[in-house]
Design goal:
The protein is built from 7 helices and 11 strands. It is of the alpha/beta class. It has 2 domains: 6-140 and 199-239, Rossmann fold (3-Layer(aba) Sandwich), CATH 3.40.50; 142-195, N-terminal domain of TfIIb, CATH 2.20.25. Strand 8 and strand 9 (188-196) form a beta hairpin. The N and C termini lie far apart (45 Å). Residues 150-177 are annotated as: Disordered. Residues 160-177 have a biased composition (Basic and acidic residues).
């Protein structure tokens, strides 16, 4: 079974409170407040649309957000209030220089191979128009170094039992994990993942090599600086000049 799909949706929703989503949406609204007043903004890997739905319904991006998601299950269970396309990050279904902005949350851009990460970022570069903005969130490399292995078991509100183990490899920068969900009916959903976490200097180099330049680096949703204690690494990027 694919990790992204029913397993991911059912095992992550209980941990995504309305308060957390509201704070993330408010952060994104502040990021995109200065955009030109026309052109779509794409939620890259929108999932069930917990960011895209409220952003497209009201506020500075109302009527401009389009979701992009490869997983059919997530699209079938998405929230109302925004249009969405089924598509692949590695081959974005948008014309050149057509997007006013794009954003991706929870390391969505870095769940592929090294070569594919470059392809994804080049695709984003191709689709952004001058003055457009890319915002993405991941976890600082140093946070994984502090806790290279993790394991937990938890009972979810619907009666499902969630089990997960993960192991971070500093040499490759990859966090390898296995998740297992046992539903109240006795179904077993399981899948594996491997997410790449980059030190900040490498991430900046990666952006520059794919035609982007760093506009800002934040360590949290209030726009605070990145520090060794930060739990988030949020970056704004734009087309590289020259």
């Amino acid at each position: 079974m694919s990790f992204f799909g029913e397993l991911y949706v059912r095992s992550t929703l209980p941990f995504l409170s309305p308060e957390v989503t509201a704070r993330e949406v408010a952060y994104l609204e502040r990021c995109f407040a200065g955009l030109p007043p026309s052109g779509p903004v794409v939620d890259l890997g929108c999932g069930h649309g917990r960011h895209a739905a409220p952003l497209n319904t009201a506020g500075v991006l109302a009527g401009r957000v389009v979701g992009l998601e490869r997983d059919a299950y997530s699209l079938a269970h998405r929230l109302p209030g925004f249009p969405a396309l089924e598509g692949d990050l590695r081959a974005l279904p948008f014309p050149d220089a057509s997007l006013a902005g794009a954003y991706a949350w929870y390391s969505t851009l870095f769940a592929f191979s090294e070569a594919e990460h470059r392809i994804i970022l080049r695709e984003v570069t191709r689709c952004l128009r001058p003055g457009a903005l890319l915002v993405f969130q991941t976890v600082p490399y140093e946070r994984l170094l502090e806790q290279p292995s993790a394991s937990f078991q938890r009972q979810l509100p619907d009666g499902s039992r969630l089990e997960e183990e993960s192991r971070f490899e500093p040499a490759t920068g990859r966090d390898h994990g296995q998740r297992r969900l046992i539903t109240p009916e006795g179904r077993v959903l399981s899948g594996t993942y491997a997410i790449r976490y980059y030190p900040l200097a490498e991430l900046i180099q990666l952006l520059e090599s794919t035609g982007l330049s760093t506009k800002w680096v934040h360590g949290g949703l209030e726009g605070e600086p990145l520090t060794p204690a930060s739990t988030d690494l949020i970056m704004g990027a734009e087309l590289r000049h020259g």
